[in-house]
Amino acid sequence: MARSPKDMFEEVFKCMTGDGAVPAHFDLRARAKGEAQAAWQGSRGERIAKHMESVRHCEQEVNADSVISSYSFLKKPMASSASLDALRPISVKELQMGQVHKGRVFYCRIVTRCSFMKSAMTLVEDADGDLAALAVYDYPRANNLCSAQALFFDGRSLAIIEPFFKLRADGTPGIRVDEAKDVVFDATAPCHRPTSSEATATPAGPSVEARIEQLRISEGPPMGPKPMHQLLRSEGFSISLKRLRDLLSKPRSSESASPVAGKSGEVGESMPTQPDVAAGSGHAGEEATTSGPAALVPERQPGEHRVLYGNEVLTHRDAGNAAFNAGKFQIAEESYTKALKAAKAEMRLAEGRDGEEEVAAESQPGVPL
Length: 369
Description:
By secondary structure, this protein is of the alpha+beta class.
């Protein structure tokens, strides 16, 4: 039955004057608390989805003047003074509500982007894949949403020294950190066991570096950093786009031995930086001693003489060497490819001339003895 405006006004009046309890449908804070508790009790995917919803809301409001603050004022009594090596690991299942876990350390990995509301808030998982909410207050380099997300990014490993596990204002449990030195970045447990997402990502597969190397040398068009990052994440690898770009900027392992390998259907020589060989004719096996412009000598030599290439081959070869030494590997590859094509053309031309001379010599009449 619908209530009349008069009945609704009386309920609101009672709430404002303190006469009577606040009805459930008017207590917005109680409703938000109930929703948060329901989300915390959901599955792993539901909890992550709920957190990401709050992250998106926080990102939308990042440029607005916000007066939102946390209502959870209970802090850790004092900063921890224990060293990381002297602490014993603790899991999510072992955390006790309202306690500072002396002599323990919580190793975890961030599994979502973080939001920011007076603190950097995110979800972390332990080695068993159990989730826990984490809020880090007053961290010097995380004083807004952008800096917090740059510091507490998805996939980063953390160690929380003597964690404080408490009931938050929304009625859900979580770990609160108030001292910067209680957070150790990129730390792993002494006997590290992969987390659930790491274990399911590549149970017996290659490391992320090996997978990137496979993608770089695979056939097909080159893959940019963003498409490769999306592919790696879809395959279960945990890597940031910045780290992927850093890895892609390094030369491939094959390039350290040979800048460019010959492509299918082309001459099989690789084109590394070669010592200069003096221009001039000579028999096979002789050392060139005369000075002159550098010449590129292929690995496969004709039977009776050494092939010396012309200026076009040398120009592309020298340009490739300079680009390779400067770390510009794509330009180097293009220059080496041009040098190979020009060298093949000159070799075919030289072979054609030799054949014509042989035919001409055979066609001459014999001279009697």
